[in-house]
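SnoaL-like domain-containing protein structure dump, as promised
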Amino acid sequence: MSVSDVAAVAELVLRERQSRDRGWWDRWTQCFAEESVVDMSWFTGSGAEFVRQTRRRSADGVWGRHRLSPPAVQVDGSRAWAELPLAIEFRVMAGGAEADLVSYCRSQYRAEHIGGRWQIRRITSIYERDSLTPAVPGTTLDLDPALFAAHRPSYRCLAWYLERTGSTISADLLGDDRPEDVARQYEAEAAWLHQTSLSPTGTTHPTKEN
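structure tokens r here:
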């Protein structure tokens, strides 16, 4: 692992989110490998299709912004893994008033060095918690708590909002309210990075599988 590779992957991860938020569609597309997968709240599919669908949704006014923290990066040969803590911010109408919805999560990136540069192979999101608060101090949001009761605490406000905008959101996303699923996710990412495989007992052994 070299410092330059760590820096390049960190820059790639940050560029991917910046390009999305700024609507730099061509630059965003170039972040993804030809065979890539994105798995998050409202979308599962290829990186290229993720860009196309986000561009369409942004034209309809469905849009959020990201507040980013520094990514943690690990490199093993031509493979790299990064975890990016972030907050997704939306200004929405809720209960007849302007409100700020913030979803806190961390995105995990698989990247590979292909054709002389680092490219994203996979993005997976893990949801932590979210909140919905009035945008104007002193304002009350006239909302029935039952609207949120059916959703998991790691992303209940986000699920409520996305369903209002016509998205279908799974009840089985990765979230900190299901720690065993999250632990398995970390094990799978480490196995991919180091090119090992997981046995039923959770131990690893080397493999040549890509």
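Residues 31 and 119 are 6 Å apart (CA to CA).
lmk if u need the other ones
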